[in-house]
């Protein structure tokens, strides 16, 4: 079971060009939303898991298509995986939709 899941993960990384995205790093325009505070890492929870805050009201959905959003999240998650403490394999997500207009 584990081998099958890991093989699927490796295939997905190859298909999604994860290594190419990582080599682009901060030069990519995908970091714009992250820098504007729409999505960011903010501390850890009581179990030491990193906390991902998503402020949907701050996202510009008009210019952020789904393929671009997926690439953004790949970069975001890869960044946190590199700094997670040993033994920590999960993170917490807080989605703030308080300021999200009803039309969205």
UniProtKB/TrEMBL annotation:
Family matches, as CDD domains: SEC14
Gene3D superfamilies: CRAL-TRIO lipid binding domain (3.40.525.10)
SUPFAM superfamilies: CRAL/TRIO domain
Residue span, CRAL-TRIO domain: 37-102
Recorded superkingdom: Eukaryota
Record Pfam families: CRAL_TRIO
The name this protein goes by in its record: CRAL-TRIO domain-containing protein
């Amino acid at each position: 079971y584990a081998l099958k899941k890991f093989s699927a993960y490796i295939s997905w990384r190859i298909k999604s060009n994860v290594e190419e995205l990582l080599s682009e790093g901060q030069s990519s325009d995908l970091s714009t939303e992250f820098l504007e505070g729409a999505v960011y890492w903010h501390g850890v929870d009581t179990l030491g898991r990193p906390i991902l805050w998503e402020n949907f009201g701050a996202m510009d959905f008009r210019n952020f298509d789904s393929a671009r959003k997926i690439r953004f999240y790949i970069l975001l998650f890869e960044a946190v995986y590199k700094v997670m403490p040993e033994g920590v394999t999960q993170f917490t997500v807080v989605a703030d939709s308080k300021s999200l207009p009803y039309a969205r």
